[in-house]
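Listing 4. Sequential folding, example run.
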Amino acid sequence: MTHVLGDGATRARSLSRVHWRLGQALLPEHFERQELGLAREIELRFAQLAPPAWGVAQIAWDEASLARGILRITQLVAITPRGRVIDMPGNARVAPLDLATAADHQVAVYAHLLRERSFERD
């Protein structure tokens, strides 16, 4: 398997980790390699679980907002089929949904995941 990096380069996925040593220079590539190795290990572990090893584990919403016709998710823990962990409010945001726009009394709610963006502080 290969993994496409942010700079367009590809590298083979591996379980090997960085062998840290005292006095070693810390480069971004070391942390990238460490994270890729851990991600691959987690991916392999999840693959061994009984299917499906993904889905919504926990969800909660604001009852007061729902009574006013607005679906406001307050907590969500889910795992995608590819193993990505969504932990709201930890690493995700969910926009409220105005149920008044629905033509029917039943509304299907879907999760749409956007590509992760990193924000740097000045």
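-- end of first protein; second protein begins --
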Amino acid sequence: MAGQAFKKFLPLFDRVLVERCAAETVTKGGIMIPEKSQGKVLQATVVAVGEGSKGKDGDLRPISVKVGEKVLLPEYGGTKVVLDDKVSLMIFAPLK
């Protein structure tokens, strides 16, 4: 899944790099879904995580997600990043 560029890529602060999951092409009942009918996939896998951000008191607040976890994405949001010819998204992460 993660190529060489993903392993070297480290997001800063409270940012997370995610890779969208593949769209479902067949339903559980075996019906094939046409490409035009497939919606935008809002589920992704976390590929890289920043260290967190500092609060007003100066303490580091870690990010609440870890590499490999599945997350839900906002429909409109994130910054498109291209690594190893794969399109990924850089998003803000929830802090603990």
